[in-house]
Give the backbone structure.
Amino acid sequence: MSGVMVMRIDPDKLSRVGRKATEPAETSPVKPTEVDAPATAGAAQVDQVMLSQRAAEIQKAKEALSTVPEVRQEKVAALKRRIQEGTYEIDAKAIAEQIISGNS
């Protein structure tokens, strides 16, 4: 068995095969019972990670977001000024609609 992992199947759990997908599944860790050494035993092995195009785009977006400040000071200053001047108006109906619809 070169490089093959053998898995034990519990016959008591076979009765669960074919049940509805809505029923919760019980899981337990699977432990290999036997693993043969690869043919390249003794040679240095290097782990590699290859990201999909989508994952690479997400990573790039996260990096870009990390440079954006969490609080946009210019917006805060503009709102403060409008509140102090008395020109800031709240549309209570629009806020209530957003709360009800679940949009924030």
Q: What stands out?
A: The CA atoms of residues 60 and 66 lie 10 Å apart. The mean pLDDT is 75.
